[in-house]
Amino acid sequence: MEEEARKDTVFRLKIDRESETYEEFLEELRNQIQSGSENSLKAMLEGAHPADIATLFRDLSLEESLYLFRLLSHEEQSYTLIKMEEEGLDKFLDELSIDEISLTLDFNETDETTYLLSFLTPERRDQVLSKLSKSDSFEIRSQLGFRESSAGRLMSKDFATAKLGDNVRKGIINVRKKAKEIEDIYQIYVTDEDGVLKGFIPLKDLFLTPINTKISKITNYSVYSFHYDTDQEEVAKSFKKYDLVSTAVVDDLGRIIGRITLDDVLEIVEEEASEDILRMAGVSEDERLSTPILQSVKRRIIWLNVNLLTAFLSSTVVAFFEDTISQIVVLATLMPIVAGLGGNAGTQSVTVVIRNIATGDLTFSNWWDAVRKEFTIGCLNGLVLGSITGTMIFLVKGNPVLGLVVGAAMLVNMLVASLTGSLVPILLKAVRIDPAIASSIFVTAMTDVCGFFFFLGLATLFSRYLIG
Amino acid sequence: MEEEARKDTVFRLKIDRESETYEEFLEELRNQIQSGSENSLKAMLEGAHPADIATLFRDLSLEESLYLFRLLSHEEQSYTLIKMEEEGLDKFLDELSIDEISLTLDFNETDETTYLLSFLTPERRDQVLSKLSKSDSFEIRSQLGFRESSAGRLMSKDFATAKLGDNVRKGIINVRKKAKEIEDIYQIYVTDEDGVLKGFIPLKDLFLTPINTKISKITNYSVYSFHYDTDQEEVAKSFKKYDLVSTAVVDDLGRIIGRITLDDVLEIVEEEASEDILRMAGVSEDERLSTPILQSVKRRIIWLNVNLLTAFLSSTVVAFFEDTISQIVVLATLMPIVAGLGGNAGTQSVTVVIRNIATGDLTFSNWWDAVRKEFTIGCLNGLVLGSITGTMIFLVKGNPVLGLVVGAAMLVNMLVASLTGSLVPILLKAVRIDPAIASSIFVTAMTDVCGFFFFLGLATLFSRYLIG
């Protein structure tokens, strides 16, 4: 009755980087690696999930990682490679021999293999491909031919099918054949005699139906499929919207050539959702901890230089009122308040609008409502902050006109901030530019320029009440 | 050989808000609703996926939406409710009768039902529950008892199990029983005689094994499970890390009480990844387009007031150098340049660091490398921007000392920006505060204060070369 036969490794060892014992564990590993104690190491890593082993590699040197890697079974190696950080994977693979690589690839699905091979130089890629079976090699070469962020690159070529004219028995036989290669089959795809995709059948339906039933009788014809050149983001959006688990990928004639499952898409969903945060600040969305410094600098410095131009613009606005400032020096001390609040309020608006565009809540039918809402929020914020600031300035400096000028400038700047913050991303989206791209730089530029203009302009208008 | 019997609705009608024909479609719908032409409407909506119908409701009034809703079958209604926007769902459900609601719930899984019921007032909730079967009612009441963002609320109570001592035939019978209720079964869970979770069996393995085999022989014992009180984010992280498709939820004794599938988690992954963007700007992560204005203002104004305090701080720093400015007024025009660049460079650093903390790339073992990298980037940026700015100031104003002062202040501010930008989120995380919370407000405060201090301080030091 009890566990008579253990199937698959039991993952007992949880490796958690945030745990307090992690550092000790790493130290111990390093010591054992130094002394070359293979058996101790195998014992230490027993029950560790390949995803966790891949995590360890982040904190070990290349040599230490390779040493551990070579202690694993080929199946564990194949999974570990997939879960390793993209950055540095090319260097890691460069250290492995062609044989070592091709032996692990036996355990990968085609999209995983294609992914790994894309990190090799063309020569080594060819060498590895020549080690695989002719059919595998052909499949992978054709997959490498697809555009990099397309459905074709994301798909796995391992899927089970049945023809409309087959009966359930044949379908089950097809599943059995594929079951050895594919870990997770949720459904089989149904095609006509020419391989054109017609529908799908969830596995439970297939198995619970009498085996002489025709496939066509239990086929679900509302099947989702994507052309191989569809953008991966499009695919991800549909998975989310229609609660899909698995979809087919078809060629120009509608014939099924691959399948994409939800876990493939999960990473894309997460990446997409978090990339905006980087783009807004003018940072490359590919930037990771391991990105070389010069590469990081390259993208950032471009936007900082754009920022420099906009800063010179604000500076010019201030210079226009140099006379006023030389007479009322206290204005210089108040400039940071007006500009700073404007910048952050603008950032709040732009952030909300960008997120709503990304989730699809804000579209061309309701953009005006969104802008109007932000403007109203800007009014309220402006009234509150303007009153508080104006009052405080009055109390500190004793001049009510100064307080009024600051308060009024604050109000106007809040309005400008909310309008720019909401309109800039919408306009960018309308001309098909990514709304996140450096939007915070443009919005803070606008709020600075307008803030200084209104503040110093009002001060100039009422200068007689402010001098002295 | 052809499609002898159609199973399930064929989703032919794609409703796309971004398409040019969308507005016309909406207009036509509104007209038909006005004239009460039920048959035309049903024809217009034929083949539309409930997710797309839910999308339509966003652009129709409450009355129009209800009218369309009541034309759908109960099954379509159940799915549409799930895909509708959270905001406004309570108002929508308030308009439905108790009977209407309970009839649709027949088609929902328990976690979906629990989700929908949470939008009703307690009285109406009880009324609806009294319409369900005693066992369903009990299940949902107990699920509503779980903490709101816990695994217990996320799970579905519909799952298939088998005992270790059963044979495969019994397992298949259990699946058949559940198959009517559950759309997607990928695996069955294996328990001991007391219901304690022991493992799982992928559906294909179950069906491809001879029926007299003992369940225990084909059970995969490395099963992932979560205690019902686990945070949903924890669950989502594990799904991502270990490529899970389905996990069990267990009670304090380890007995399986529910299951969570990848599509449940997808939304959480996406929400988590994109919420940081809002928190950084000091906006509530719950803010949506439909959030009432006063509610939006509430959260934002708190952080803007914090910003006001930090702005007064910068203002005080500038006031400290008021004498210098009154002598060298041009300094006031250059202040925006130094402060503005510092703010955006700081935002770049803080954004990268926050993202790396969120993805798990930055942890307590490598935080120093991250800070060091940002500092180096800050140096390079500072040298480049400082040189450019200094040179331009020299060319425009003709004073080399002024150019040097600005350039040096720029360099120092870039260093400060990168240090603050990287350290602030790390420190917040270390004291277990969300690193994203208004971090951009704090970082820009630091860069403003330090920028003004160094710029005006250096200017004061070299004032004799700058006056006149």
UniProtKB/TrEMBL annotation, chains A, B:
One GO cellular component term noted in the UniProt record for this chain: plasma membrane
Membrane topology value: Multi-pass membrane protein
Highest taxon of source: Bacteria
PROSITE patterns: CBS (PS51371)
SMART domains named in the record: CBS, MgtE_N
Family matches, as NCBIfam families: mgtE
The family this protein is said to belong to: Belongs to the SLC41A transporter family.
SUBUNIT field: Homodimer.
PANTHER family tied to this protein: MAGNESIUM TRANSPORTER MGTE
Record protein name field: Magnesium transporter MgtE
